[in-house]
Amino acid sequence: MADEINRECLSVGQSEDGRLSVLVVSTDEDRENFKSSLFEYDRFEGDAALIFEDDIWLSNMWKSPTGTHFVCEILGRCFHDLTGTFVGTKVSLRRLFKIWGLHDRAVYVVGAEGTCFRFDGTGWVDMSAGLQGYVHAVGGVAEDALFCAGDNGFIARSSGGPWQRIDIPANPDLRGVYAKTRDVAYFCGLNGACLMLDGETYQPIDAPEESFYTISEYRGEIYFGSLAGGIFKLVGTGLVPFKQQARGYASRGTPRYLWTCGGDQVARFDGSGWFAKTFS
After folding, report:
1. Phi first, then psi: what are they for 151, rounded to 5°?
2. Rounded (5°) CA angle 136-20-57
3. Which tens digit of pLDDT belongs to each residue from 39-69?
4. N or C: which end of the chain has fewer CB within 10 A?
5. Would you say 265 and 278 are in contact if contact means Cβ atoms under 8 Å apart?
6. pLDDT band at 4 (very low <50, low <70, confident <90, very high)
7. Overall pTM surpassing 0.85 (yes/no)
8. Which residues of 76-97 are buried (b: 16+ CB within 10 A; e: fewer)?
9. What residues have CB less than 8 Å from 220, skipping those under 6 apart?
10. Residue 177: what pLDDT?
C-alpha cells in the first residue's frame, strides 16, 4: 500500500500452546485501500511471523484453543486454516463485524441486518432467525447458552434454537459481550454503555463516558476495554481505571495473561506488570 499511514490492531488471541496471534489492518488516509495482516508469535518477546495477508478489510479474528484462526472480512467472507492452509468462503452478502467461537466446530460470525452464521467444522450454517439490526458482538459458554448484542439496545439469547430478544430499559449501541455463566453476561458499548444481565435482571454498570469495545475475565476479575481511556476493572457495580496506557479495542483473558490491543499497540498483563509492543 503506497500511501499507508495507519495501522490498527483489531484482534488478539492466544492458543493453548502459548502462541499469540494479532490481526493488523493498514489503511490510507481516506480509508479507501486496505491491507490486512495476520501475525503469529511463538514468544511475544520475539519477532512475529506473517501467516496471512491480503488487500482486503478483515474486520475480526478469533483464535481457537487448538491454534486454528477464524477471520471475517467486512464484505461477507470468512477464512480459516483448519487444514493448515487458509480457505475463504463467501458466507453472507451482508457486512460481517465479529467472529468468536467455543471450539473449532462451533464458531459464530455476526453482522449487519441481523446476520449470524455458525461454522460446524465443514461449512457455515445460517442461524440468523430472531436477530435484527446491526449485531456487533457474540459470546457464550456453550452451544445452547449464547448471547449477542448490537445497536439500539439489541440483546438476544439462544438456547440452541432461534434467538430470543431480551428487552432492556435503554437503547445503547452495544459493541462487546462476555458471558460468565449460562445466565450472567456483561455487555459494553458506546458512550459509557455498560451493563450486566443475570437471567432477566438488568443491572447498569457505572462507567465513564468512554466508548467500550471489549470485556474479558482474567483470574476471576472482569475487565472492560476502551481505546481512549484504556482498561477498566469492574469493582462492585462500577468501573475503575486499571491501565490508562493500554488500548482496549479487543482483549483476551487466558489463565496466565490478559491480552489487549487497539490502535498500534498490543499489550500483555501478567498479574503484576505490563509489557507492550507497537505496530507502526
Report:
1. -70, 160
2. 40
3. 999 999 999 999 999 999 999 999 999 999 9
4. C
5. yes
6. low
7. yes
8. bbbbbbbeeeeeeeebbebbbb
9. none
10. 98
Output the DSSP codes for 136-174.
EEEEEEETTEEEEEEGGG-EEEESSSS-EE---S----E
- pLDDT value at 31 more than 80: no
How far is the C-alpha of 143 from the C-alpha of 183, rounded, in Å? 14
Q: How high is the mean pLDDT of the chain?
A: 96
List of residues 6+ apart from 272 with CB closer than 8 A = none
Output the CA angle 138-143-144, nearest 5 degrees: 100
Q: Which helix (H) or strand (E) holds 214?
A: strand 212-218
> Residue 89 pairs with which residues in a beta bridge?
78
The set of residues, in sequence order, having a beta carbon less than 8 Å from that of 122 and lying 6+ positions away, is none
Distance CA 159, CA 280 (A): 43
Name, in order, each residue with C-beta under 8 angstroms of 236's C-beta and a sequence gap of 6 or more: none
Q: How far apart are the first and last CA of the chain?
A: 14
- Grid cell digits, residue 20: 499469540
Contact indicator for 243, 269 with CB cutoff of 8 Å: yes
